[in-house]
Amino acid sequence: MGYLLGVVAFVAGLVLSVMLHEAGHLLTAKRFGMKATQFFVGFGPTLWSTRRGETEYGVKAVLLGGFVRIIGYTTLEKVDEADRPRAFYRQPAGRRAVVIGSGVVINFVFAFLLLTVLAMAVGVRDPGTATTTVQEVSACVPEVLGEECGEDARPSPARRAGMRTGDRVVAFAGAPVADWAALRDRIRAARPGQAVPVVVDRDGRRLTLRVTLAEVGGEPFLGMTAQVVGAGYDRLGPLEAAGFAAQGIGRTVVEMVRALAALPAAVPELFSAERAQTPGGQVGSVVGAGQVSGEIFSAEASWRDKAGTYLALVASINIFLGALNVLPLLPLDGGHLAVVGYERLRARAARARGRPDPGPVDITRLLPITYLVVLLLVGLSVLLILADLINPLSVP
């Protein structure tokens, strides 16, 4: 039930994000007197619609996007003579740029508000401080760090030496250790196979244990998990929360750019067990995001963990929508902005030469590139959907 609730919550967040994006286009177009005839969420057959004034509002069957139909959005569209003064392509460049860019702005603003609410209402997770106290003793030496041990795995060095949960390491290899960072550095400085003395405080008594370190991944391995203190959530004030949101958006954009840049090289790994090991392999589709949302709601975690992760997920959807649409490629918003910018540069160049404004760009010349971009986006979406169905990613 929790998983299903998470999927429904993701769909609701996606629909809301798309509605806000398209509402940005609609409201600014109406503000400037342009004629908008349709505002729909989704594609395909119409499930429901209603008309308010000259605009039809509705929902279509496939909730994977949305659109606003503004009369004369390109010069290819035939416009009735009565609507020509209100056609999009006949408006000043500044107004067209505002209408085009408003959807992106709305998505980033909404992401900013979500992250601000997260920081103020839910709180920012404090990972706490690792100590030298043993939280858990590893049962064995794994082949790869972080993976489960095989049937023939050897007992971990800490277990063989008799280390127990609750022991506090006070010295390692003859050197005192006051915190986890110091202990970690002393372990890394030792050699695998080397027997070292480890002094622990156990119920107020000092004991010296002899530990022979193992090797995992070329590094010395002791086999203990450090106890963490001070972990929890800190609610931030308005200014701190705003700074947290701004930094979060910046980091997310950088991570998305890196992941998308690494995606082509990761395509062969999308259907393998190594998918999650590279940034490109961690790129998912709406199906994958829905699965992640389901895992968030069905996980055995606190309400803060669930609420914080879900709000961050919806914020990332809006950041992705905004960042994707900034790309200067038709049919994305960034492509239309690039066309407007080119028209203005061309008009200025003509004016400087004493020539008339050449007018709108002949959009038919850009159609081959537009079709190629659409084909790539659709093909990539289908590939990622298949990968998420066959080889899904999980919440870390």
Question: Briefly, what is this?
Answer:
This protein has helices at 2-31, 93-122, 157-160, 180-189, 238-266, 286-298, 303-326, 333-352, 367-390; strands at 36-52, 55-70, 124-126, 129-137, 168-172, 175-176, 195-202, 205-212, 214-216, 219-221, 224-229, 232-234.
Based on CA atoms alone, the radius of gyration comes out at 29 Å
Strand content: 15-25%
**Overall average residue pLDDT:** 91
Percent in helix: 40-55%
The count of strands amounts to 12
**Tally of contiguous helical segments:** 9
Please mark out the parts with pLDDT under 50 across 5 or more consecutive residues, or reply none: none
Query: Helix- and strand-based class?
Result: alpha+beta
Q: If you had to describe this structure to a student in words, what would you say it looks like?
A:
There is one protein chain. The chain is 46% helix and 21% strand. The chain is built from nine helices and twelve strands. Strand 9 (214-216) and strand 10 form a beta hairpin. Helix 1 runs parallel beside helix 7 and helix 2 packs antiparallel against helix 8.
Question: What distinguishing features does this structure have?
Answer:
396 residues; 12 strands; four-stranded antiparallel sheet; 46% helix; alpha+beta; 9 helices; two-stranded antiparallel sheet
